[in-house]
Amino acid sequence: MYYKNKQGHLISYEKYKDYDKIRKKRSEDTIMRKPLPIGVEFFEKMRSRGYYYVDKTLFIKELIDKKGEVNLFTRPRRFGKTLTLDMLRCFFEEGREPSNFEGLKIMEEGEKYTSMMGKYPVIFLTLKSAKTGEERSAFEALRNEIAREFDRHGYLLDSDALSEKDKADFIGFRDRNPEPDRYKNSLNFLCACIRKATGKNTILLIDEYDVPLESSFYRGYYEPMVDFIRSLFEGALKTNDALEFAVITGCLRISKESIFTGLNNLSIVSIMTPEYGEYFGFTDEEVRDILSYYQLSDKYEEVRNWYNGYIFGNSNVYNPWSTIMYLRDHIGSNRDYFPVSYWANTSSNSIVRDLVERADSGTKGEIERLIEGGSIEKPVHEDITYGEIYQGQDNLWNFLFFTGYLKKTAERFDEKSKTTYVTMTIPNWETEYIYRQKIINWFDQEVVRKSDRSALFESMKKGDAEGFEKEINRLLAPSISYMDSYENFYHGFMLGILSGHDVYAAKSNRESGEGRSDILMTTGDVFEKAFVIELKAVKQVGRKPVTMEMMDQAAERAIKQIDDRSYVDALLEEGYGNIGRYGIAFFKKKCRVHYKDGYVSS
Predict the structure, then answer these.
(1) Contact 111, 136 (CB under 8 A)
(2) Residue 548: other Cβ atoms inside 10 A
(3) How far apart are CA 502 and CA 506, in angstroms?
(4) Which end of the chain is more exposed for a tag (fewer CB within 10 A), N or C?
(5) What residues does CATH 3.40.1350 cover in the chain?
């Protein structure tokens, strides 16, 4: 008796039994291992409930050693910023469980550091809740977040050190009663109350500080939000003698003139800064360890190609979110599951999309070069104001770089212009997928929106292959393309330009006959003509040039495939009796169209 393994090879029953035992043993071993921290952003929960934790506690040592008073860390989305801040809270805050740090690296660094555990009051704010649709709800979300911290420090109301006015003001903030403008001084006031009651300075932690700024920019209330955040930060960070130190995280470094006005004690740590590089993201050694732990060491090269490649300071790191999601999908019996782009839909890309859609032809050519595996060199300006976003194409590259869509491979400083220039490439296969699937589509959607397609549809309806070809080539010219043009790129392009007609509907990859046709065009009226469209991408082999004859042959093969695989059958079953067949061959930004009237069916 023989069985098929996953590769489709026949193996004997004895070998199958052995293989099945190994597979079951691997699944049992996996079940006994620590759970993966999918979506777990809080350190205490991760440690107390036994999740797998990549030890980043030496971040605490470096922070203490450097003695920065106000520290701003900028990293792309999903690179562990919230978890890092919560780790700081659990380490420094009074009343936290010290056992959560047992066995971690910080505990081996000596009393200089461990003596600071549980010694400070902590204020922890996350501003990500202010990502809302309109101004009132955004400010309400910020007030609620501040009120939550007042409520968490409600023990201060039992202190005789606070005056009756202090207590009344404290209760007002806790119960969300004060006028909105008074909240601008709320953090300074809370620190002062803590100092009066405990005699201790406060550690202030603020997560995702730039989220309300980005959201307000696109919703039309950017200026009042900037005023609010600036005033909040000035009171808490600039004129606050009850502050021990502060750590702030975000995706982008917003200009000091915009938010951090006059804040001379600010230490900014961006992806360009040499220090702290290994603490956001997984290092190569950490990835090898976690793959070994979950018995996936043989997947190292795949994980490295897909999720490695980010350069933060002097450190090379992996995307931690994508690495963990990959492990989730591959442990146990699912080890042959294909890798995917997990990060594609987790990061805010509204600004990037807007800049891409405004790009000129030169920028499009540079994006083509990146997708082909090349590099570009651009000036980097770390101070960003949203109000200046559209003042030049270089801002597109700055946003792509600082939000994780590009990585640094080299940098130089131009003495004459006093400007830093960075050579950039696409970091890995996951990000390349985003370029192919999203950024290219954004370009093409913009092409479609700006184009008159009436002649395109008129030619298609008439069976005018020459006219149809002319219109497709016209729309191909300004689109993004790259050297290895795959059929799925042209499929997405054609689906885009054929969609949105007031009569004809484009259907993609529908089961039909003995396979899937690329595109079906129908009106819903079975007495009107319908079309089957099949696409072919012509590849250049070596240095041999692609000829028009080769394009014609490919277009004919496309029509032959329609006939051989009976793609028209689906339309016949719906009642369509008048059917045309298009075969279209593509090579880079040129196409060749052949047409056959009538239909052939088995």
Answers:
(1) no
(2) 11
(3) 11
(4) N
(5) 451-596
All CATH 3.40.50 domain ranges in the chain, comma separated? 54-269
| Buried-exposed string 478-512: b where 16+ CB fall within 10 A, e elsewhere | ebbbbeebeeebbbbbbbbbbeebeebebbeeeeb
For residue 227, give the amino acid letter: D
Look-up: residue for tokens 């309806």? Answer: 461
Domain 54-269 - what CATH class? Answer: alpha beta
Q: Which option is the CATH number for 451-596: 3.90.1070, 1.10.260, 3.40.1350, 1.10.3470?
A: 3.40.1350
Check the CA dihedral 202-203-208-209 and report its sign.
positive
For the record, the structure tokens of 341 come out as: 């782009």
Q: For residue 368, give Cα distances in angstroms to 239, 341, 400, 429, 481.
A: 49, 20, 15, 15, 6
- Closest to 307 in 3D by CA, of 279, 261, 341: 341
Provide the β-strand partners of residue 315: 312
| Residue 199: DSSP 8-state | S
**β-sheet with 202-207: strand ranges across:** 122-126, 202-207, 243-250, 70-74, 266-269
pTM of the model: 0.76
Which residues in 364-394 are b (16+ Cβ under 10 Å) and which e? bebbbebbeeebbebebbbebbbeebeeeee
The span from the CA of 275 to the CA of 45, in Å, is: 28
Residues whose CB falls within 8 Å of the CB of residue 471, separated by 6 or more in sequence, listed in order: 453, 455, 456, 459
Judged by DSSP in three states, 312 sits in: strand
Tokens found for residue 27: 């699944």
Least-confidence region, from 304-308, 396-400, 524-528:
396-400
